[in-house]
Amino acid sequence: MKNRSKLREIFVGDISFEATEEDLRQLFSVCGTVRAVSMLTDTKSGKFIGRAFICMATDAEAKDAIATLDGARLLNRCIRVNAAQDKPQRVLSPPATKPGPVNKKLRAKRPGKGAGKPRLR
Fold it and tell me: Most CB contacts within 10 A, which of 6, 9, 59, 115?
């Protein structure tokens, strides 16, 4: 969905998990021509997560869909309909640096087996 700066892109939330792409196309076609439907899925399971993006043919149709369908019922659930927003750019932090090699002579000696006080028997 390349051109989210224009209002043609719509985000839809709180969709029933049983909803299909055809259900969304049919609902949004009341407000105009639906160019594309993208249903979001979980990356691990591949199951629909109840959110989608709808691309309408014109800005006017998208505005009408937002005004008309926000709060509408789809398969017994009230859906949320908003203008899609650009995904914020993530700032990547520099990779964590590992400490350099430790001089073996400078390591603190830890008591282990056979070290420390002799045992009294």
Answer: 9
